[in-house]
Amino acid sequence: xxxxxxxxxxxxxxxxxxxxxxxxxxxxxxxxxxxxxxxxxxxxxxxxxxxxxxxxxxxxxxxxxxxxxxxxxxxxxxxxxxxxxxxxxxxxxxxxxxxxxxxxxxxxxxxxxxxxxxxxxxxxxxxxxxxxxxxxxxxxxxxxxxxxxxxxxxxxxxxxxxxxxxxxxxxxxxxxxxxxxxxxxxxxxxxxxxxxxxxxxxxxxxxxxxxxxxxxxxxxxxxxxxxxxxxxxxxxxxxxxxxxxxxxxxxxxxxxxxxxxxxxxxxxxxxxxxxxxxxxxxxxxxxxxxxxxxxxxxxxxxxxxxxxxxxxxxxxxxxxxxxxxxxxxxxxxxxxxxxxxxxxxxxxxxxxxxxxxxxxxxxxxxxxxxxxxx
Length: 374
Prior knowledge:
Blueprint: E1 4-9, H1 24-28, H2 37-50, E2 56-61, H3 70-85, E3 91-96, H4 103-111, E4 116-122, H5 126-131, H6 138-150, E5 154-159, H7 168-181, E6 185-188, E7 192-194, H8 198-204, H9 213-230, E8 234-237, H10 243-246, E9 251-254, H11 260-277, E10 287-290, H12 295-299, H13 304-311, E11 319-321, E12 329-333, E13 338-342, E14 362-365, E15 368-370
Parallel strand pairs: 1-2, 2-3, 3-4, 4-5, 5-6, 6-8, 10-11
Antiparallel strand pairs: 7-9, 10-12, 12-13, 14-15
């Protein structure tokens, strides 16, 4: 069972400047910058009351924790220490910038029993980082991940594909890069244009167009596939469906859906079936089977995969369940052939990063640059 993560959002707290895409108050739904010790204790008790039998962690998200004034960091972390001593929670995690994680910072965090650090990488392409006003380089991110892991922390990377200057090739290279650096888990947040951001100004001016939902799902599926192949968990795909994001006009464009992770997994299975079908000489009597606990992901939202396969010429009108299949497998067969594929081990996307001769966003349609993600 996954641990219960009890989040405390500190929107923009500690951030040295505002990134092009960021509106943490809207993303988190939190207006107060930093919780008090009393609020932390009360909130933890409320969460534990709803899930009393799960191992719990306290997490500080939404700002650059390690750039808060040191006294404020101490107050937040010390508020959690009694909960650790009483074994009400087991771990503390924080998120921060890659250029705010030197050896002295890591020693301080270890001394306050922080166990997990999430690094806001966003991209490993320096042009993308520059255009997004991140204020750090790809090398900073790689070094930070390596340093954090070497210091004994659990380390994760947060990626944000689809920003200005980004491409599919760059996004996939970013996944490979953070894995190579030692990231032990990944979050994928495809770009959305939030009102009240500099990115919204670019979008309204016609200078930027993010990948839409369909494009973003396809590209997140490829990123997820790379992580699965490397054995790296993807613990979140897409922004949490907070009340602020659901307000009219909050999201102007981009890849957002309240169940984005499910759409991405369904895309992965959709593409796996097409890959297996390439080797079939006939589709007569075609049948598709999956493990019982993967049925909803394989058939897709509102059974959309069945419709898409039929449109592609595959006569799959229902999906059988087979408890003998591994959790990552599906079986496609007809009267003459049988093929078992895996979302982990099957080479679903036969594409080379070096073959993607794309340098950025270009081209015009209706006066707006088009994302080269198709």
